Amino acid sequence: MGLSPNLLTRRAAGVATTTFALMLSTAAVGVVPAASAFSAAPAGSCAEPADVHSDARVAKGGSTKLDPNNLTAKQVSEREADLAAALRERAAFRGGAQAAAPLATVTVPVVVHVIQRDSTRAGGNIPDSLITSQITVLNQAYSGATGGAPTAFSFQLAKINRVTNPAWYPIVQGSSAERQMKTSLREGGKNTLNVYLGELSDNLLGWATFPKRKLDSMDGVVVLNESLPGGTATNYNEGDTGTHEIGHWLNLYHTFQGGCAGSGDSVDDTPAEASPAYQCPTGRDTCSAAGLDPITNFMDYTYDSCMHQFTAGQASRMITAWNAYRAA
Ligand SMILES: [Zn+2]
């Protein structure tokens, strides 16, 4: 994760960055090495998301058309209507005193599935230490410790489940193998975050499902294994792919959703942005509406070193969605 300038000391708390300084200065810009063996599919080959309830993060060089979390205006309006309906349903339920009061804080149990081709690091066998560092990064990001608004959420590692299955490696977005993997492995209720780590198809850094009223086995986030803090995915190895994907899992859109028009990402305090920002384009301003592009927001596409915050509006949207969709 990036940090606001006055919080530099916190950066060392969960992420060992010094070891990777040399790699950062010599590796090609904007390419995720671990996924570079998989070229992006031709434009138009994935014109419609396979599942409108999921979302992804793409490195520069990847195709945003492959990102199932970039929604059409119609899909956004359907999701917003569903959220309103879910909230009305919950309120009516509470009116009858059958449900608990809305939660103000949430500790999310996290089940991590490490998908491996074999026992080598290249085959997906990443150490437990990267996973525990990822949990630390999540807790820093979602508490506001990196410079953003505090959110209601903290994360607790419940289990690491290692699975060797070459048929699931790499994890191919939208494939029957992905469905089979999740159907076999997913654990817990609506409140349990299932994270699937592996090498990924199509240069993707990760993808996630948005919350739904009825839990299904696809629910969870998929994250490039080497994007974890201390991994080898140059410029994307501080753990913010995990932070970003979990933002989707908690109902956040990209900051560039909807471009300059309309309600954008349905959050009031994230300035409108015409398109994804990559790397760290300080001062970028793509819409005539007030405010510079939110390039430091976790829900953009910039480098991990560039992004360090959620806004108060995003924090509010996440806890509202939790109470609508994921609370008991
Ligand atoms: Zn995304």
The H-and-E topology, N to C, reads as HHEHEHEHEEEHH
What percent of residues adopt helix (DSSP H or I)?
25-40%
| Poorly predicted residue ranges | 5-54
> Radius of gyration from the CA trace?
19 Å
Provide the residue-averaged pLDDT. 84
Largest sheet: 6 strands, mixed
**Associated small molecules:** zinc ion
Instruction: Please report the total strand number as a whole number.
Output: 6
Strand order of the largest sheet: 1-5-6-4-2-3
Structural classification: alpha/beta
Distance between the termini: 31 Å
Question: What count of helical segments does DSSP give?
Answer: 7
The geometry reads as globular
Strand content: 5-15%
How would you describe the overall organization of this protein?
- This protein has 328 residues and is of the alpha/beta class.
- It is built from 7 helices and 6 strands, in the order H-H-E-H-E-H-E-H-E-E-E-H-H.
- A 6-stranded mixed beta sheet has the order 1-5-6-4-2-3, covered by helices on one side.
- Strand 2 (106-116), helix 4 and strand 3 (153-164) form a beta-alpha-beta unit.
- Residues 55-57, 69, 244, 248, 254 line the site of zinc ion.
